[in-house]
Design brief:
Blueprint: E1 4-8, H1 13-26, E2 31-35, H2 41-45, E3 49-53, H3 64-73, E4 82-88, H4 100-111, E5 115-117, E6 120-121, E7 133-134, E8 137-138, E9 141-143, H5 145-148, H6 152-167
Parallel strand pairs: 1-2, 1-3, 3-4, 4-5, 4-9
Antiparallel strand pairs: 6-8, 7-8
Helix pairs in contact: 1-6
């Protein structure tokens, strides 16, 4: 497998738990966990494949640590890179912007020339709207810890199996 990173904010507890499950599902020492709060553009550029952990904050916003790195990301030519995104949201209490972070990040990486992989079905979720939704799919893996936590392991496992094929 090509050089792969899982990037997320190490202090985001639920995102970190999902990132650990993703790494475990890959079952490979070739997957590196990287703290987006301390990453450099050189380090970011060194990976062929990336899995980005992007929770949705407040009313559909990206976390501060992603906001701070986005200007650097926009200066990187990502042609040839494959990027998958997982995001956390709450479809019952924030159903009007469920996992918007996935959609916001998807737009950014695509504008930078990356190939977005890891689309998943919206089936089994109940929400009003989402910037992550493209037709009947999310532009990544949607995780709802609060309302569907029992589905996390199964969803992550199936998603990583999909990514193993799409990352090759």
């Amino acid at each position: 497998m090509k050089k792969t990173a899982i990037l997320y904010g190490f202090n985001a507890i639920k995102t970190a738990k999902i990132a650990e499950k993703v790494k475990e599902a890959f079952g490979s020492d070739d997957v590196e966990m990287v703290n987006v709060e301390t990453i450099t553009t050189e380090q970011y550029s060194s990976f062929d494949n990336m899995v980005l952990g992007v929770p949705t904050w407040f009313d559909g916003e990206l976390p501060n640590y992603w906001d701070e790195f986005i200007p650097d990301m926009e200066d990187i030519d990502m042609k040839g890179k494959k990027i998958a995104i997982f995001g956390l949201g709450d479809q019952k209490n924030y159903g009007e912007n469920f996992v918007d972070g996935i959609g916001l990040m998807a737009e950014i990486v695509e504008e930078c020339g990356a190939t977005l992989v890891g689309f998943t079905s919206t089936e089994g979720y109940s929400f009003e709207s989402s910037k992550a939704q493209r037709g009947n799919q999310f532009a990544g893996l949607a995780i709802d810890y609060e309302n569907q936590g029992t589905k996390n392991k199964e969803r992550v496992s199936a998603w990583v199996e999909q990514l193993k094929k799409e990352f090759d």
